[in-house]
């Protein structure tokens, strides 16, 4: 419904897809996707689109609201959209946090392994020097 309304209103105003895209600061392909119902604009862009076409958001969305609560209904729809976007953003942030924690753990484990295995065994070093020291002491006594 939105795509058909957008196309009809755009043509009634005499705008090409390119002209409308320029006014909204988007690319022409975005307008095409909206008209084909392949995607929808975000809340802010939807409001700018309605203002550019000189219609209400509810008319653009295809809803015929006849009572006086049009502003509250539109606000409610926008509120739902914003809530869905907030949930999506929280999920995305959670996933990135988990990825960061896993990467940090891997780096720390690698550092620990590198340090642990690169330290020479001090006992081995002392044992290899003992015969030399014993030989030197015997040479001095003779």
UniProtKB/TrEMBL annotation:
Residue intervals passing through the bilayer: 98-119
A Pfam family per the record: HTH_3
CDD domains: HTH_XRE
InterPro entries for this protein: Cro/C1-type_HTH, Lambda_DNA-bd_dom_sf
Keyword Transmembrane helix listed: yes
PROSITE patterns: HTH_CROC1
The keyword Cytoplasm is assigned to this record: no
One MF term in the entry's GO annotations: DNA binding
Keywords per UniProt: DNA-binding, Membrane, Transmembrane, Transmembrane helix
Limits of the HTH cro/C1-type domain: 6-60
Listed name of the protein: Helix-turn-helix domain-containing protein
Organism: Sellimonas intestinalis
